[in-house]
Design a protein that fits this description.
By secondary structure, this protein is mostly beta strands. It has helices spanning 3-8, 82-89, 113-117; strands at 33-37, 43-47, 57-66, 70-81, 98-103, 108-112, 126-131, 134-135, 144-146, 161-167. It contains 3 helices and 10 strands. The protein has a 5-stranded mixed beta sheet with strand order 2-1-10-5-6. Strands 3, 4, 7, 8 and 9 form a 5-stranded antiparallel beta sheet that branches. The longest helix is centred in the middle third of the chain and has 8 residues, at 82-89. The two termini are 22 Å apart. Bound molecules: ligand MTE and molybdenum atom. The ligand Nc1nc2c(c(=O)[nH]1)N[C@H]1C(S)=C(S)[C@@H](COP(=O)(O)O)O[C@H]1N2 binds at residues 21, 23-24, 64, 66, 72, 103, 105, 107, 154-155, 157-160.
């Protein structure tokens, strides 16, 4: 369904919850950094190499399921659990309900606090900078959101992460 279809059905089109998407094959930028935005308006810039100094995890048996160009994997993606990152930057007691993860090409998704606090058996949601023991290339997404339990399509597997917004309410 396209934007018009969503509007005709009376629902507001939500860019962070698309029903389908034509994957963009072209890396939008070579910037190996992203921004984390806190509910109080604070913002930090994080370099990809700084992710190496955080507590890391590896999640095996990850698949990227494209409805257009087929399934790839299994991969072992490694990086930092999104919850680890949120807890590192948030002040204790800060209230938050969602994390929006948005790429440099404007593609993105929204995770609920529950999604992060109660990981699926397939593994926790992570910001990956490594695939099968190698740094993610620019083509592979550089810094990529990996949602291990998404097995029907790849609408949450956001490449080229540029902004991580920790928010109290859906924005
Ligand atoms: N930034 C960004 N991430 C994205 C997309 C995109 O267009 N831009 N497309 C999504 C879709 S629809 C698919 S199928 C997969 C494709 O991932 P792959 O190129 O690793 O197979 O990336 C997902 N992540
Ligand atoms: Mo896709």
């Amino acid at each position: 369904m396209n934007n018009d279809g969503a509007l005709l059905s009376g629902e507001q089109f939500d860019p962070l919850n698309p029903e389908s998407h034509e994957p963009n094959p072209d890396p939008p930028s070579a910037d190996p950094s992203f921004y984390i935005h806190l509910p109080n308006g604070g913002c930090y810039r994080i370099l990809a190499r700084e992710l190496r100094s955080f507590s890391r995890i590896a999640v095996p048996d990850c698949y990227i399921v494209s409805t257009g160009h087929g399934t790839s994997g299994p991969f072992v993606f490694a990086g930092v659990a999104l919850l680890t990152l949120v807890e590192k930057f948030l002040n204790p007691g800060d209230s938050w309900h969602f994390v929006e993860v948005i790429s440099a090409d404007g593609f993105g998704t929204r995770l609920s606090r529950q999604d992060l606090l109660i990981p699926d058996v397939s593994g926790p949601i992570l910001l990956a900078d490594d695939c099968d023991g190698r740094r993610l290339t620019r083509e592979q997404g550089l810094i990529r959101l990996i949602v291990p339990n998404e097995r029907d399509d790849a609408l949450m597997q956001v490449k080229w992460v540029e902004n991580v917004n920790i928010v109290e309410k859906k924005s």
